[in-house]
Amino acid sequence: MAEIGTMRVKSGLAEMLKGGVIMDVVNADQAKIAEEAGACAVMALERVPADIRVQGGVARMSDPDMIKGIQAAVTIPVMAKCRIGHFAEAQILQALEVDYIDESEVLTPADLENHVDKWKYTVPFVCGATNLGEALRRVNEGAAMIRTKGEAGTGDIVNAVTHMRSVFGSIRRLGSMYEEELYSEAKRLQAPYELVKWVAENGRLPVVTFTAGGIATPADAALCMQLGADGVFVGSGIFKAGNPAQRARAIVEATTHFNDPAILARVSAGLGEAMVGISTQSLPPEQRLETRGW
Amino acid sequence: MSEQLRIGVLALQGNFREHAAMLRRLGADVTEVRLPHQLADLDGLIIPGGESTTIGKLAALYGLDEAIRAFPAPVFGTCAGMILLAREAVDGTHGQPLLGLVDIAVRRNAFGRQVASFETDLDVDGEPEPVHAVFIRAPWIESVGPGVQVLAEAAGHPVLARDGKYLVAAFHPELTDDTRIHERFLDLVREEQGVRA
Description:
By secondary structure, chain A is an alpha/beta fold. Helices cover 43% and strands 13% of the residues of chain A. Chain A has an eight-stranded parallel sheet, sandwiched between helices. The model of chain A has no long low-confidence stretch (mean pLDDT 96). By secondary structure, chain B is of the alpha/beta class. Chain B has a single domain, classed as Class I glutamine amidotransferase (GATase) domain (Rossmann fold), CATH 3.40.50. The radius of gyration of chain B is 15 Å and the shape is globular. The two termini of chain B are 16 Å apart. Chain A binds chain B through residues 1-6, 8-10, 12-13, 15-20, 35-41, 75-77, 94, 97-100, 122-124, 252-253, 255-257, 260, and chain B through 11-18, 34, 49-51, 53-54, 57-58, 61, 79-80, 91, 93, 95-96, 108-109, 112-121, 134-137, 172, 175. Strand 1 of chain A pairs antiparallel with strand 7 (118-122) of chain B, so a sheet runs across the interface.
């Protein structure tokens, strides 16, 4: 009869988000602005990554009251973040009936070796990855959606591009290998052979793959889409800029019309100041969030 | 038997790639529709699942709402596409864009949030074998007008229906390998071509 929490149902929601923009919001007012601008989902969190960088300290799961306030304010899916490996936070987020859990490197990791066993949950998980091996390890743990990490809270797109080129480039290379080469390639990627073989045969990850980390302009969104992303997460890039509503709408339009430079030129005009940002090349290694996750 | 059908898939946001793949398997010539002029000369259109507010707002920005209202050929809406085609959304979401082409009232996220999303076997009118159906934060049809033919129900509510040249489904036939629902839509397209010819 009716089955809930199957992989098809979990990955199915990610399929419905494709071609869309998922926006970080810290309160109900921002969530409404995001929905009005055409966001396909919102990520409820207490501090956007740019503020986590400035303020420091331990970044944790958001207050359930704040998540409920956002759930009450919008009809689009509401996602929320738990710390890497913090399965109790994940249990709480499932009890709150969030639509997706992001096991996120933006928060301070709770476990330096293990991620959450995501197969145990009815709510689907999205996880970050910087390369194909990392993405497949997360899928093996039950992630129903992947996002390349980029470098959150910087407004600098360079790491997102690096990670997409790494993931999608590795997938293309797998497609050109002989079958007997896939065994050693699986070992090199530190990923299960069956998943590596599936990717080699199908030319894509088994789950929807978004991009995150550093998207600040409509052009950034179009770049990610043209590089092969299924959609984009925008964190600090919207509400740390002037005219968030207008910028949010412009990034939504750019994500849909990513192959139409005339539309991209029109929606890029007159948006006011983008977030100031930080060049990721200037970040000391201990401030790089991309290295969190194993 | 006849020439290749030209079917558009509204590609503003959502699960349009899977619909396109399914239609190509069935031999159709598929066009991704993002702007009104891309509707020209199409024999039918699919409005896919996705977020109905997102798709509705993007459609209105580029005049696709009026273009779809004026589109003379059959339209098939799944999930968000069904909501967009409906006359009314009963939960009264502020600013919910509707095309108002199908005489049904729908309830958004009727089964609950994502934790309640499910898959099940569905008895479909005219199909000897059940159709395996995937419901993702799915709507259901709350009430239908007199001309609407209900083709399947789940939890006591219509989830597949036909209203003239429109077909609507609350579930996602593009997420399985079963092509029967898409075949029914292509049959409807041929039937309407016969009527207009």
